[in-house]
Design brief:
The chain has 10 helices and no strands. With 263 residues, it is mostly helical. The two termini are 36 Å apart.
Length: 263
């Protein structure tokens, strides 16, 4: 129980550190440039509109709720056994702390133009979040109440966005080294990445029942549509593919939620 208590405290401390570093990265800014300005150095058709990145505020808000929820048992005066919150902390173990460290490390790699390192760190963060979601969902197909909103939703949203970010980061690295994409055109590459992201999302939704993950991908696809329309002032191939994929995912999400309510 001593170990669980320390994990609960460290989860809060590392979350605070992550938020502070993220704030300073753009307010200072780190290495003299904001995160968005550096992203602009590696233009590609998969990057969504700047407004889409507001999702980070939502991610951090839900992670804050998780930190508060998981630490609530620290205030219990009377102990009658292991609480549900402590079981959740035990499942996640040090993985949330590791995710915070990787998040901070990615910012430094990105801001100092270590693009390949940023890709490797982002992949590490993706694997960490997959592990967290796997541990949380193992043996719990459907979750209700505060545990759903304060635990499963935060990490589902986080995983969904990082899944998109990994693809965007890899594409940015390709741009940085001038890779020809095996001769594939930029438009065809973007379309292929949209199809890949959508296929993964469909699998996660139908097999893992992770609805928050799917909604975040829909949000990212909407951002791609907005960015393409702003750039070309027309409904091009990339925007059309993203629209079709987004609408398809939305229909699947609604169908899945209807099935959940019926069950």
């Amino acid at each position: 129980m001593f170990r669980i208590g320390w994990l609960q405290i460290l989860n809060i401390l590392f979350f605070i550190a992550m938020v502070i570093v993220n704030g300073l990265a753009n307010s200072l800014p780190l290495n003299g440039r904001t995160t968005g300005q550096i992203s602009g150095q590696y233009p590609n058709l998969f990057v969504p509109a700047p407004v889409t990145f507001f999702i980070w505020a939502i991610i951090y808000l839900f992670l804050l709720l998780f930190c508060i929820y998981q630490a609530a048992s620290l205030m219990d005066d009377v102990r009658t056994g292991v609480s549900k919150k402590e079981v959740i902390v035990g499942k996640i173990d040090v993985l949330f702390i590791l995710s915070c460290i990787l998040n901070i490390a990615w910012l430094f790699a990105w801001h100092y133009n270590l693009v390949l390192w940023s890709v490797l760190i982002m992949i590490g963060l993706l694997i960490t979040l997959i592990a967290i979601n796997y541990r949380l969902h193992k043996g719990a197909q459907y979750v209700k109440g505060t545990e759903k909103w304060f635990v499963h939703v935060p990490f589902g949203i986080y995983l969904g966005w990082i899944s998109i970010a990994v693809i965007a980061d890899i594409t940015a690295w390709m741009v940085s080294i001038g890779w020809s994409r095996w001769g594939i055109s930029e438009v065809a590459w973007a379309v292929a990445m949209i199809i890949l992201a959508s296929a993964i999302t469909i699998w996660v939704l139908l097999r893992k029942h992770n609805v928050p993950y799917a909604w975040v991908v829909v949000w990212a696809l909407a951002g791609i549509v907005i960015k393409q329309y702003e750039a070309a002032s027309t409904f091009n191939t990339v925007a059309g593919t993203a629209t079709f994929a987004g609408v398809t995912l939305m229909l699947l999400i609604f169908a899945h939620m209807a099935r959940y309510r019926k069950n």
